[in-house]
Each structure stands twice: as C-alpha cells, then as structure tokens.
Amino acid sequence: MRFSTMSDSEIIAELCRRIKETRMQLGLSQIELAERAQVGAATIKRVELGESVTLSTLIGILRGLDRLHQLESILYDSHIRAFNAQLVSASPSRIRIRKKQANQPKEKRQAAVPEAAADAAINEWYTSSASRSVVWSFMPAEAEKK
Length: 146
Fold this sequence. Notes:
mainly alpha
C-alpha cells in the first residue's frame, strides 16, 4: 500500500484498520487495550471507527499493542542522513607520530640494544636450526635411564 497516493482521511482509516486488526490478532478486547494504552475505551472505539487520533493517543495505543518499536521506521532515512552528515563533517583528528628512541634517555636506549642483539641471535639460531632440519624431542627421564 502506498500512502503517498492516498488522502489524509484514507491514511487515517488505514492506520485505524491496522490497529483494530492487530488488537484482534493479539486477542485483546477494546477494554483491555484501553487499559494497556491508558486511554478510555471510547477512545479505542473511535480510533477503530477511523476517526482522527492524536499523536499521544497513537503512541499509547502502539505501546499497548507492543508495537511502539515500529515508530523507529518513521522518518528513519532522515535520521541516517543526519548521522552520515555528522560523520562526514567531522574533521579527522591529527595524528602525531614520534620516534621513541629519540625521546628516551640514553640509559634506556643502551639497554634496548642488547635486547635487539639477543633477538637477532635467537632468530639466527632458529633459522639455522630450521635449515639443518634439527628436530627437538622430549624424552622422559625414565626413558633416558634404559
């Protein structure tokens, strides 16, 4: 159904028809829905007859039908456009990159050199072991005694 081709009174009638249909599918009486929506039973009757309804009454009825979440889809595209506009208009923050060794005290820079040398030695040993196909295995102490 395309609401864009309908008159205001036709749209109101269609919404009221859907409210009545939903109430009946849920097995609620008009009085039960009125209690849930916190409106009078006469209001529910008027709505289901297709009379105009205020927004606050509509919200109450949707809440009583557990359909309030369906309001999320109304004008959803404008919400998305506004959100995207905020993302696009936000200027990217500047990122400052520093060289860590230049800012460290001399003692810390000297301590980092032996670690780098040790890492290089370990990498060299691992590479040479892998190239010679050295296989390391674990033997329990009992097996070594035999």
